[in-house]
Specification:
Largest interface: A-B, 27 and 27 residues
Shape of chain A: globular
Strand order of the largest sheet of chain A: 6-7-8-3-9-10
Oligomer: homodimer
Bound molecules: adenosine-5'-triphosphate, magnesium ion
Number of helices of chain A: 7
Largest sheet of chain A: 6 strands, mixed
Structural class of chain A: alpha/beta
Distance between the termini of chain A: 24 Å
């Protein structure tokens, strides 16, 4: 499904250039569940932003379902992403003036889903993450972990082809973290979604089928997870 | 140093009332290092906001150094906090239009520290957290973990009396997380600062001298950490 070949991303010029990614080559099959791990500053979020079409590489190629993503205009990227990719950001990013339910429904209204199907999918996703009772609250009225789970519900509700989750359990206790992993697992079994999750938690990494290790902008390891 | 007696905090009224804290009684001695742990939604951030004078309890008493905190006006609270308390928020909260260095120096300029002492303390704190090389970058130009460490440097630089850290290692890999704990330890040894940190990480909890467990707005456990 996903082919990255020698993907690079740098910021700045000359001596001050920051090479966030230096030639990343990676293939991800449809339906795979991959954990992306590595030290702070190693390039994980940068790679996720490129996968999620929020950013373009400065070098290399990115093909999704056989289509060259670097050839799309910004508008085409946004449309493609809206239909097929879901993203959980490292910093949560809920819209503060919408309730939890409205936040979860928003991407689906952009995708032009019928109102009742949208509501049903939204409530089911909130339920799965244990936060359905907070559907009418605003982001400022929730705890950090509750807001994070609403952001995750928003990502899984439309049943995307590709789910990109940047540290989805960062602000969660063990119990809520397990709820999240179970929700991903369930989505994976029901829809065959491809999942890439960034995590610092070895326990979370073990839930994936494969671990890609990043360091200093390069892939330094790519191993299946044995003995799950 | 800190006395909380039957502290309660609720939101809303009537049937919809949310009891975020239900009668928390807790004493913290000067120089203690306490870990506050508990499930998502159990009231940790609410308790931290009250300790940090960002919020008032709806019931109960809060005394700091013998002084009744609930009797202070909003302006007095802000002034007291500025001089004596430092806070690391669950969501980082750096000012996006200031560089890392400027962000770290800001609380010290409010406290009217001399410019050279301020700069020196800021650079030392950034160094301790392994992010001194990022001092001229803006928050949007840093990784999540790097931004979190700048927020921590900002909290420790002025040498506060009370350091409140809400999930300071949430977005960090093991190595950066250890840097943070070492920085707290070092500050604790040098200045005898009182530290309360919220964490979901048992490993981080073990670095404290005592663990207070919160559940559903109440203290359900309060134990010294044996065998460190
Ligand atoms: N403005 C508000 N209105 C209503 N309920 C609120 C409001 N703010 C917080 N709450 C509720 O108060 C409870 C405690 O929230 P708090 O943020 O203290 O939890 P927490 O222990 O920090 O959780 P987490 O580990 O998820 O960060 C939660 O159930 C939350 O939904
Ligand atoms: N706009 C920018 N200008 C300069 N450097 C940048 C910019 N954005 C990111 N970087 C740098 O690129 C590198 C990779 O950042 P990235 O956010 O991908 O790291 P990460 O692996 O997600 O880290 P973390 O685990 O801390 O979230 C970092 O060294 C970061 O400082
Ligand atoms: Mg990141
Ligand atoms: Mg919290």
């Amino acid at each position: 499904l996903i082919e990255l070949r020698e993907v690079s991303r740098s910021y700045g010029e000359g001596e001050a250039t920051v090479h966030a990614l230096r030639g990343v080559t990676l293939s991800i099959k449809s339906g795979e569940m991959v954990a992306l791990m590595g030290p702070s500053g190693s390039g994980k979020s940068t790679l996720m932003n490129i996968l999620g079409l929020f950013d373009r590489p400065t070098g290399g190629a990115y093909t999704f379902g056989g289509q060259d993503m670097t050839r799309l205009s910004a508008r085409q990227q946004a449309s493609f992403r809206g239909r097929r990719i879901a993203f959980v950001f490292q910093g949560i990013h809920l819209l503060p003036r919408l309730t939890a339910l409205a936040n979860v429904e928003l991407p689906m209204s952009y995708a032009r889903m019928a109102a009742n199907t949208r509501r049903e999918s939204a409530l089911k996703a909130l339920e799965l993450l244990g936060v359905a009772h907070l559907k009418d609250r605003y982001p400022s009225q929730m705890s950090g972990g509750q807001a994070q789970r609403v952001a995750i519900a928003r990502a899984i509700a439309p049943g995307p082809d590709l789910l990109l989750a940047d540290e989805p359990t960062g602000a969660l206790d063990r119990k809520s973290g397990e709820l999240v992993l179970q929700a991903f697992q369930e989505l994976h079994e029901e829809t065959g979604v491809t999942i890439v999750l960034v995590t610092h938690d070895a326990f979370v990494g073990q839930h994936a089928a494969r671990i890609v290790a990043l360091e200093d902008g390069q892939v330094i390891g790519d191993q299946p997870v044995t003995d799950r």
